[in-house]
Amino acid sequence: EVQLVESGGGLVQAGGSLRLSCAASGFTFDDYAIGWFRQAPGKEREGVSCISSSDGSTYYADSVKGRFTISSDNAKNTVYLQMNSLNPEDTGFYYCYADGNWGRGTQVTVSS
After folding, report:
1. For 52-88, what is each residue's pLDDT tens digit?
2. For residues 76 and 68, is the Cβ–Cβ distance under 8 A?
3. Rounded Cα–Cα distance for residues 65 and 85 (Å)
4. What residues contact residue 65 under an 8 Å CB cut-off, 6+ apart?
5. Residues 6+ positions from 103 with CB-CB distance below 8 Å
């Protein structure tokens, strides 16, 4: 059974940082890209960042480029999202996605 478990969300002031983690199990980690999505209240879910566990290639949405960094630890089957210079527009529920499966998400709230 595929499981994706997010952690690391919380409340932070604008300009602050958080690091999200996505612990994966139930599939061959190296075979898939792992993505982070977010959904703000009243808005559609949007892609934030993605990483290929096999070759380390990455993707970032324009809105987070230069502020967020995605990385993976294949030994731990975990993907991280380091989020710096957070602003209130980054507020939302952050979800991990891989191989057609979603985690339950973790809440990120950035106060102004």
Report:
1. 978 889 999 999 999 999 999 989 999 999 999 999 9
2. no
3. 11
4. none
5. 3, 4, 5, 6, 22, 95, 96, 97
Length of the chain measured in residues: 112
Torsion angle of the four alpha carbons 105, 34, 101, 48, in this order, in degrees rounded to the nearest 10 = 50
Which residues have a Cβ under 8 Å from the Cβ of 5 and sit 6 or more positions away? 22, 23, 96, 103, 104
Task: List CB contacts of 14: < 8 A, sequence separation 6 or more.
Answer: 86, 87, 88, 110, 111, 112
Contact between residue 10 and residue 73 where contact means Cβ atoms under 8 Å apart:
no
Q: What pLDDT does residue 39 have? A: 98
Angle formed at CA 87 by CA 86 and CA 93, multiple of 5 degrees: 80
What is the DSSP-derived secondary structure letter of residue 81?
Answer: E
DSSP code for 83: E
